[in-house]
Amino acid sequence: MSDDKTQLNEMIKFHGHRCWASISGLRMGLAALRTLGVKRSGGSQLLAVVEIGDDHGGMCFADGVQYATGCTVGKGNLRKAGFGKLGLTLVEKASNRAVRISYKPTLQPRIAESAFMKKRGMGIMPDEIPEAEQMELVDLVWNAPEADIMTIEEVFEWDEDWLPEVMGFVPCQACGELVAKAYLRVVGDKHVCIPCSGYDR
Predict the structure, then answer these.
(1) Helix (H, G, I), strand (E, B) or coil at 92
(2) CB–CB of 63/22 below 8 Å?
(3) Where exactly are the structural domains of the chain?
(4) Which region, left, alpha or beta, applies to residue 180 given φ > 0 means left and ψ of -120 to 50 means alpha?
(5) Contacts of 105 (CB under 8 A, 6+ apart)
(6) CATH assignment of 6-157?
(7) 16: left (phi over 0), alpha (psi -120 to 50) or beta
(8) Of 98, 8, 102, 104, the residue nearest 48 (C-alpha)
């Protein structure tokens, strides 16, 4: 993709190991930023919706997307759709312009036959696999032509009314622990946290 591997190396440090799915997420996140003509989100200017689910190989994709776009679980601007797919929709909230990018299976036969994936199939943790075998897949995905990695769809309008951020924490009047104001519940004449309220949410 590029001779400048700074972003690649920093994302690998962030993710914790080298794998094809995180590199795919990084590349697709960077492509989404470029397509929308926006910068990485330091706040909540963007929303990323990743189509991964839970408990399957390839969830590392989301970390690549997080690193590229700046959208994170902590900032509340990364959502999981739960489809079990390596897809990404990136939304610029100010304009509601969005783009969906999906992963192409072009490289999957080579990925599946790699030493890395064979060892993962035996239950070996990714960071316990020799670095050279990790790098084989990193280089494959990082250096492949963009057209072999992803399909970039047309920019479209995202339909969502954005709620304002509610600032501030206060002590729960039952247990005394801090709770975000948006999560307070009223029980009698007290403002309490969800666990103390007896409500599910």
Answers:
(1) strand
(2) yes
(3) 6-157, 166-201
(4) beta
(5) none
(6) 3.30.1330.130
(7) left
(8) 98
